[in-house]
Amino acid sequence: MRTLLCSIRFLLVIAVQPCEAQKRMMIVDQGSSAPGGSNLMSMMVMLKSPQVENLGITIITGNAWRDEEARHALRMLEMIGRSDVPVALGAVFPLVRTEMSAPTPHPDKRHP
């Protein structure tokens, strides 16, 4: 829900900017597997915006483990024809929560 509200706020901000305004440079820093695909949808809005220059996407462990989140982002970029956008991998484990309280990955997807 927070991601969706951020996307709406972003759209409102760019809607009131003059068309001649300089592109805003942006790095997307979020997970990519929220319920209902809301994180991917918010990324697509920014990636398709003519007012934004997308510098890249950073992926961390969120609702799923980092590597699975990265696969979602890379698949989305390929589907919308934006494989030119770099994806950087961030932290595997949360900085505040313990590994035991983090989401448990599928047994054959565990990170070494």
What does this structure look like?
With 112 residues, this protein is of the alpha/beta class. It has a domain at 22-94. It is built from three helices and three strands. The protein has helices at 2-15, 38-48, 66-79, and strands at 24-29, 52-59, 87-89. Strands 1-2-3 form a three-stranded parallel beta sheet. Helix 2 (38-48) links the parallel strand 1 and strand 2. It is globular.
Task: Give a brief description.
It is built from three helices and three strands.
SSE arrangement:
Layout: H1 2-15, E1 24-29, H2 38-48, E2 52-59, H3 66-79, E3 87-89
Parallel strand pairs: 1-2, 2-3
Helix pairs in contact: 1-2
Search tags:
15% strand, 3-stranded parallel sheet, 112 residues, 3 helices, single chain
Principal-axes shape call: globular
Q: Quickly count the helices.
A: 3
**Helix fraction?**
25-40%
Strands of the widest sheet, in order across it, are: 1-2-3
| Cα-based radius of gyration, to the nearest Å | 15 Å
N- to C-terminal separation? 32 Å
Task: Output the structural class.
Answer: alpha/beta
Q: What's the number of extended β-strand segments?
A: 3
Residue share in β-strands: 15-25%
What order do the SSEs take from the amino end to the carboxyl end, as H and E? HEHEHE
User: What is the mean predicted local confidence, pLDDT?
Assistant: 76
Largest sheet: 3 strands, parallel
Low-confidence stretches: none
